[in-house]
Description:
By secondary structure, this protein is of the alpha+beta class.
Amino acid sequence: MGLPGMVLSAIAAAVGAIMYWAITYQGTGFRISTVGLILMIAGAFGFVVSAIVFAVSRSQVGGRRHELNRQVTDSAGNTTSVHESSK
């Protein structure tokens, strides 16, 4: 989902629009315009769902800064303090 889903949904909706409005062939028992309408509806629904997933996945969870303080002691008894900060 997300951005690739949005692209695929837009392509499906475009193909559906072409099948619905641009193709005038009428066969017996099978209507291309009906398939086009179904593709447009499915494409629009998929685009909305993918946009929601994309928006949710782009938001930050929790705080903006993460800090880590630790103290390391080696086998000789030497102590080192480490401070890590990330945004």
